[in-house]
């Protein structure tokens, strides 16, 4: 990877939010700048919408977009500096909006998203909800609000993870975030954190794609999908997959220094998809850059 070229692509093309995120994570910039930019995507009800995640232009608050806001805050270390945002998120989550009481899960997709430009996966289906984003949202409430209801949900989630035979990559990332937040907030009365860490590592091993020829070409999860920094969740035996992913990054960096997305929307919003792709590319490039720096010793090709 040409590291400097990747950094310049991000600086030149990122939205103000992602640029502040980049500055905070890679340059030691102010975390408060991320908080201020993130506020622009928060609704009066406390939840998040408004194309924070570029694949979904629904202005209304949704669980998955609110979870994405938490990801932003965690990854740049700003959870402790976002008091008003945190209070709003907790208020919205406790309101029950977007929560399926029958399944006891926050919905991955909501009906109102169909009324706005979106990718096909944001149209609700009839199946059982996964733990994405429920486990990280429940842990968030355990950390900032407490409440036995959320603790029980977290215990159920990690109990399931310990014996799961199949786990989606985005679902695993929610478990990673959940475990990290419990460690960060010192929440030790819900689950055994050491045991849970091993369950997350095992889940990464289940979810990571072993067909290395698909890395960066198809929508599959190589190691770079999970790790954007040194991590305690790297399972044993994936060294060859890491090397393959690093090689794919070297090969697939584009002439402008950035990386492309590997998915289509499969909905009739061609112009909006093009805009979303432009928004996504700096974020994807940040993910590749973080992985490359962590697992390649920071050396460019």
From TrEMBL:
InterPro entries: Terpenoid_cyclase/PrenylTrfase. SUPFAM superfamilies: Terpenoid cyclases/Protein prenyltransferases. This is Prenyltransferase.
